[in-house]
Design a protein that fits this description.
The complex is a heterodimer. By secondary structure, chain A is mainly α. Chain A has 26 helices and two strands. In chain A, strands 1-2 form a two-stranded antiparallel sheet. In chain A, a hairpin with a 6-residue loop joins strand 1 and strand 2. By secondary structure, chain B is mainly α. In chain B, 63% of the residues are buried. Chain B has a domain of 214 residues. Chain B is globular, with a radius of gyration of 21 Å. Chain B starts with 6 loop residues before the first helix and ends in a 7-residue tail after the last helix. Chain B has a two-stranded antiparallel ribbon with strand order 1-2. In chain B, 74% of the residues lie in helices and 1% in strands. Chain B has 18 helices and two strands. The chains are: A mainly alpha, B mainly alpha. At the A-B interface, strand 1, helix 25 and helix 26 of A face helix 6, helix 7, helix 8, helix 10 and helix 15 of B.
């Protein structure tokens, strides 16, 4: 329990100290201090996990209440933390990958004039994420959840002089708030029904409930809406691509490795509830599969390297939700872990490229960078092979775990969509790799000035590359490690990873190889540029994510604007009426002013009169 | 050997002596007296916190129970705030710390008093140094403040003393515990009780005995006004609560309703009169009148939670008002007082100062996440538990009016333009930081403090 407080407290300390002292700190120290704190938090997370592993399997929970927050508003609310195997996986990734990204940021953001604020907000994000994951009841989880949304908002809009960054930050916040409201209503309903929000209390109560009632369906839907918004599931995926306006390490940390997987964590955490709402679980799987396919088709058409990676993230999140929906929790968590490695690597390497090309993100202006940046390029290739699902790399095992289990559970259609998406993934990822690193340079001027990134940026990238190759050993470990979490309550029976039929793997790998081949032929042999295929017709629509922004504008923005205009008219009238009353009160108080004469005899007279009134009152009362 | 429960008072008394001697021995522009005053006041506060409360009468006169100790802590906090704000300033004479400590000692004694004689002694010990301090600046306004305070104060002391005489005449005792068995109230007793309420209501700034407050606050040096706003109010409210909720708890039917009317009148009048003020010290003075009304709500509801809420509310109010006065102290520079226009553009020029004043005003308005919210929340809860809907509604209406009072300075701070430049001193910075953090801390996590105060304010006779 003590360690948990420190793991959560250190990043908060960093955020607070950096915010207060950012103006007087020497330039480099802000980054070093922030990185050091996250490093210590990572070491503590490892220690806490080791401690957890030493406990007997049935009792692998570390929990404790920091303090009772407040009383007087119904039952008291405690700041309770809770570490179990599921949360342990998340804190290791958050602090571990977070630490690497902090190190990288020292190089990437070192020249930014506002570097102190950057690291303060980065630490605030780590704190929020840890609070979310280590929360011991749903209310603390919601606080962490909302803080994650806030710090994401701050970091997306980090360069607040850019109008597009501010717009993107606003969009992310609005979409995330939709999810927050869903969770809030769901929590209120659960509290109304069970009178508790702590995980053990809530899940024990759920044990005795019968599956399939409308109440659980609605609660699960509401909570899923929260997960949907945070994890960019269709149709709430619209904010993630725009969120790429933030600094690239932020995209790596928040919009690839950690924050967007909060929804996966949340749904896995609530597996006893999903057990009671099988319809919702099926919907989660179906939406996940659709999101994976949908985002992959959009990624194929992107011109901006970061937007392509962003849609790839949405697509991979779809896989994770597919796993959660069919009850393959360990496979979903496994994919979260490997995805954190290869997607963080992809973003960091992309950041190095962008850095080398002085801020250029358009792939049309890249190409032929392999020679110039060999370390970055090889690392990028490793991650690309991993995400494409080539056997031997971590991504292959986690993706196969999901698809194989889908086949075993009898979801042939979900498997088919997943396998086809795997082929598409290989295609668009090799498209990105070829456009960036292979072929001839398409912009000589930029190419000439390109250079390999400094060590502080390449070392984290190389470490992540190693993890992409060796991360596959984690699969077996996760299988036994997550047992205590998913064995405790009903609903986790199918959590463990089981290998599917061999022909399924063969088909998926074959599709991936076809995708790779097609990409090489199109973009290396034929030398097509980044604009090929997305300049007219369906390609333009694909570039704009099949018009999802336009649909949202028509379905939500315009009606809400109309509603807001209507409400404003009522509001203006209301304010006028209130103004009139306030004016009367102010006028009345002005009229009262002559009572303050400043003359003592008046004062004493008033006291005298008051005294007479009191005396008279008391004598009458007798 | 002195009784250990009186050690805080002893320390305060020693502080008075030490500061007096130092003022005589060392040369004039020295801070030695301030330092020793600070040390002794802090020591008295810490000792009050560490002391184990007892419920035994000491010499039939006073009782160092948890209630008295909480009052001790608040009064010493007010003394410390006053000393810190006056620190390092040439304008205040060397006698300043001694007089302030003496007034603080009076306030502490009022919190402990279980007997009217001692209560009156404490009241006079509190008032007499303040008459001098109010007039300690050498200009007409300060002299005016002093003389007004003295004259009206003398009048109210006379009333209080006469009321006590009537009480003694009808019962033959001046010790509170002997009143607790009274059921029927003879006429003489009622008249005495009425006059006691008037006398203490004067110190608390209960309408219509409040007329002195704005003039005196405006004219007094700001550190003195700070102490008056917090320390005097705590002492008066504590004494009133103990006399009524403890001594006359069985006869609450007689005084409860009257006090309820006074509470509503005080809340509304204080906040209404604060609306048109342009001088910040006058605004805070009227706000103090309104806040006295809030405290009266807790007393008049005559329930355990009401008494607890009244005692607890003094803390958020005190923190906020000390914070606001500290900001004025930073703003005023060489000339005393600050006008609303002086705040113009403060949010851009002095963001920390503006943040401090904003926190103070939000807390006074009772906005959540500041201490004032919990203070008002528990007051309303207390009123409703006592089935006093009228007072609860009055409190809400008064709070609505007060929003207009407290948001106007904030508006000014965010207006573009040049107001008066700020002059930070270390003492004022400490007060701003301490009171601001305390206000926010209580607003986020009130539990430990609430528990501490609630235990102190539990009178056995209340239901």
């Amino acid at each position: 329990m003590i360690t948990l407080t420190e793991i959560i407290g250190l990043p908060l300390l960093g955020a607070a100290t950096l915010m207060v002292f950012k103006t007087i700190l020497p330039r480099r120290t802000a980054g070093i201090w922030a990185t050091l704190l996250i490093g210590v938090a990572f070491a503590l997370s490892v220690a806490a996990t080791v401690h957890l592993a030493a406990l007997p399997a049935g009792h692998r929970v570390v929990t404790g209440s920091l303090f009772t927050w407040t009383t007087g508003f119904g039952p008291s609310i405690a700041w309770r933390f809770y570490l179990d195997p599921l949360a342990a996986v998340w804190i290791l990734i958050i602090t571990g990958v977070g630490f690497l990204i902090h190190v990288y940021s020292n190089g990437y953001m070192g020249d930014d004039p506002d570097v102190g604020r950057y690291f303060a907000e980065l630490n605030l994000f780590i704190f929020s994420m840890l609070l979310l994951v280590l929360a011991g009841n749903l209310l603390i989880l919601l606080i962490g959840w909302a803080l994650v949304g806030l710090s994401s908002y701050l970091l997306i809009g980090f360069w607040y002089e850019r109008a597009s960054a501010v717009r993107a930050a606003k969009k992310a916040l609005v979409v995330n708030t939709v999810g927050d409201v869903g969770i809030l209503i769901g929590i209120v309903l659960l509290y109304q029904h069970f009178g508790t929000l702590s995980y053990p209390g809530l899940f024990s109560a759920l044990q005795h409930a019968a599956p399939g009632s409308a109440f659980f369906t609605w609660v699960a839907i509401l909570l899923y809406i929260g997960a949907m918004a945070k994890s960019a599931q269709f149709p709430l995926h619209i904010w993630l691509a725009d969120a790429m306006e933030g600094p690239t390490p932020v995209s790596a940390l928040i919009h690839a490795a950690t924050m967007v997987t909060a929804g996966v964590y949340f749904m896995a955490r609530l597996y006893p509830l999903l057990h009671l709402a099988p319809g919702v679980a099926a919907a989660i799987a179906a939406i996940g599969a659709f999101t994976a396919l949908f985002a992959a088709t959009v990624a194929v058409f992107q011109r901006d390297i970061k937007r392509a990676l962003a849609y790839s993230t949405v697509s991979q999140l779809g896989y994770m939700f597919l796993a959660v929906g069919i009850g393959a929790y360990a496979a979903g968590v496994f994919h979260f872990v490997t995805h954190a490695f290869f997607k963080a690597l992809l973003f960091l390497a992309a950041g190095s490229v962008i850095h080398a090309l002085s801020g250029e993100q358009d792939m049309q202006k890249m190409g032929g960078l392999f020679r110039k940046m060999p370390v970055t390029a090889v690392s990028f290739l490793v991650a690309t092979l991993a995400i494409s699902g080539i056997p031997g790399f971590a991504g292959y095992f986690s993706k196969e775990a999901i698809l194989g289990q889908a086949l075993l559970e009898g979801h042939a259609l979900l498997w088919a969509v997943g396998a086809f998406t795997a082929g598409l993934t290989a295609f668009y990822m090799f498209r990105v790799f070829s456009l960036t690193f292979l072929g001839k340079p398409r912009d000589e001027k930029l190419h000439q000035h390109a250079h390999e990134a400094p060590l502080v940026m390449t070392i984290p990238v190389v470490i992540l590359g190693a993890l992409c190759i060796f991360g596959d050993v984690l699969g077996g470990w996760l299988n036994s490690w997550l047992g205590p979490t998913f064995d405790t309550y009903a609903g986790g029976a199918t959590y463990a990873i089981r290998s599917g039929p061999v022909w399924g793997t063969a088909v998926a790998v074959l599709l991936a190889l076809i995708g790779i081949g097609a990409a090489i032929v199109l973009y290396v042999r034929q030398g097509k540029g980044a604009y090929a295929g997305n300049e007219r017709g369906a390609g333009v629509l694909g570039l704009q994510a099949w018009g999802s922004d336009a649909v949202w504008r028509w379905a939500a923005v315009v009606p809400f604007q109309a509603l807001g205009d209507g409400v404003r008219r009522v509001n203006v009238g209301f304010v006028r009426a209130l103004d009139a009353v306030a004016g009367e009160v102010a006028a009345f108080s002005d009229d009262l002013r002559p009572i303050e004469t400043g003359q003592i005899r008046r004062y004493v007279l008033a006291m005298m009169m008051g005294m007479v009134v009191v005396l008279a009152y008391f004598l009458v009362r007798m | 050997m002195i009784n250990p429960v009186l050690e805080p008072e002893l320390l305060m008394g020693l502080g008075v002596l030490a500061t007096l001697i130092l003022a005589m021995v060392v040369r004039e522009r020295s801070n030695a007296a301030y330092w020793s005053g600070l040390v002794f006041a802090v020591a008295a506060g810490v000792r009050s916190y560490t002391l184990h409360p007892t419920s035994h009468l000491v010499g039939g006169m006073m009782v160092a129970d948890g209630y008295g100790l909480v009052v001790n802590i608040m009064v010493t906090a007010a003394v410390v705030a006053g000393l810190l704000l006056a620190f390092d300033s040439e304008r205040y004479t060397v006698e300043f710390p001694a007089l302030l400590l003496l007034a603080g000692l009076g306030g502490m004694i009022m919190g402990l008093a279980a007997n009217f004689i001692l209560l009156f002694l404490g009241l006079e010990l509190l008032s007499l140094p303040l008459y001098i301090l109010a007039a300690s600046r050498r200009d007409a306004r300060s002299a005016e403040a002093g003389i007004k305070y003295l004259l009206t104060g003398a009048f109210s002391s006379g009333v209080l003393l006469f009321g006590m005489a009537l009480l003694y005449g009808s019962t033959g005792t001046v010790t509170f515990i002997n009143y607790t068995t009274l059921h029927l109230v003879p006429v003489l007793l009622g008249a005495g009780l009425a006059l006691v309420i008037v006398g203490l209501g004067y110190k608390l700034a209960m309408v219509p005995f409040h007329m002195w407050v704005p003039d005196v606050y405006e004219g007094s040096p700001t550190p003195v006004a700070t102490f008056m706003a917090f320390g005097t109010k705590v002492a008066a409210a504590a004494a009133l609560l103990r006399v009524l909720a403890f001594g006359f708890s069985l006869t609450s039917g007689v005084w409860g309703l009257a006090l309820g009317y006074f509470a509503v009148l005080t809340m509304l009048a204080g906040n209404l009169m604060a609306l048109p003020q342009r001088d910040l010290k006058r605004l805070l003075a009227w706000s103090g009148v309104g806040n006295a009304g809030y405290v009266l709500v807790g007393i008049a509801s005559h329930t355990v939670s009401g008494a607890q809420a009244a005692l607890f509310y003094l803390l958020p109010y005190g923190m906020a008002v000390v914070l606001a006065f500290a900001v004025i102290r930073v703003l005023e520079g060489q000339q005393e007082g600050a006008q609303m226009e002086d705040l113009t553009g403060l949010a851009h020029r002095e963001p920390w100062l503006a943040a401090g004043l904003t926190v103070a005003l939000l807390s006074l308005a009772g906005i959540p996440l500041t201490a004032g919210f919990f203070g008002k929340f528990y007051l309303i809860k207390g009123a409703l538990q006592g089935d006093q809907w009228g007072m609860a509604i009055g409190l809400v209406v008064a709070t609505l009016v007060s929003l207009g009072v407290y948001f106007r300075p904030i508006q000014y701070m965010f207006r573009p333009g040049e107001g008066r430049p700020a002059r930070w001193s270390v003492g004022a910075a400490v007060v701003v930081a301490g009171a601001g953090l305390a206000t926010l801390f209580i607003g986020v996590y009130p539990e430990p403090l609430l528990h501490f105060v609630a235990q102190a304010a539990t009178f056995t006779w209340l239901r």
